Amino acid sequence: MNGHQIAPVQAGAFLPDLRSTRANIGGWAQLSVVQYFVAEAAVIEAWAGPEPYSRATGFISDLGAVSCGVYEDRAVCSPLHWLMNASFVVQGLALVLGALFLTAGLLCVAARPGVPARRFRAAGDSLAQARVLTVPWILAVAIRILTGVAGLGTVIVGLVPEDAGSPWHFAGALMFFIGGGFALLLLAILWFRQTQVSWFLAACAAVCLGALVVGGLTGMDVPQPGTLERLMGYPVTIGLAAAGLVIAQRVRTERKALRAG
């Protein structure tokens, strides 16, 4: 006995398995995206451009540019470009793992032990009832898809640097910003009243999507484009990592209780 009170399981509901290896891998994989900040700091330190790199004015993608030279009126030279691009790929794969391994049921209950996730509800009259998906379940599935899109976009950014001359780099960045921003927004809604972290996720989503709108309206022609771009990207990484931490901690507690017997 672990002391958790289990709520009655209604028709169309089930108890998500918080003790599975799958859930453990998914939570820690999503948390691991914070490695990006370590890699970015190292790459900035090694910057070899004519002027020091500035997070306020320099684009993130400049750090992954393979060749030294002038790119869109910016002098770019990043000796550790391979590290930055590897970090993008690792971050993206971690998000894809999170999307694949963190089930809709687990997300529906914010990995709370003993709480059933409801997939279906009855609709129609008593003579002709049909099972329809519940709103929380639909939100959870959408979150998984959007997180996967964000992860795939980040992988593309790492595999196709900005100086490769391919539109896929820009497309990958948009996939990360848009997919990640809306994943956080839906997750904040889904986890409302389930964990206080939902407010933090909502703030991250608001900053990301607000900056994305400003960037779209201005074409990134602002005094500090690097700051604006980071307001799009940083909240996604931080917010999804925070969600991964919540799940990883709760799954770890349940697995520890299982081992204690």
Structure description:
- The protein is mainly α and 261 residues long.
- It contains 8 helices and 6 strands; from the N terminus they run βααββααβββαααα.
- It has helices at 21-31, 35-45, 81-101, 104-108, 135-159, 167-190, 197-218, 225-260, and strands at residues 13-14, 69-71, 74-76, 117-118, 120-123, 130-133.
- It has a two-stranded antiparallel ribbon with strand order 1-4. Strands 2-3 form a two-stranded antiparallel ribbon. A two-stranded antiparallel sheet has the order 5-6.
- Helix 3 packs antiparallel against helix 5 and helix 7 (197-218) runs antiparallel to helix 8.
Poorly predicted tracts of residues: none
- Beta fraction: 5-15%
| Fraction in helix | 55-70%
Largest sheet, in brief, is:
2 strands, antiparallel
Q: C-alpha Rg, in Å?
A: 21 Å
Shape: elongated
Total number of beta strands: 6
Succession of helices and strands: EHHEEHHEEEHHHH
- Structural class comes to mainly alpha
Number of helices: 8
Please report the distance between the alpha carbons of the first and last residues. Answer: 8 Å
* Average predicted confidence as pLDDT: 92
The order of strands across the largest sheet is 1-4
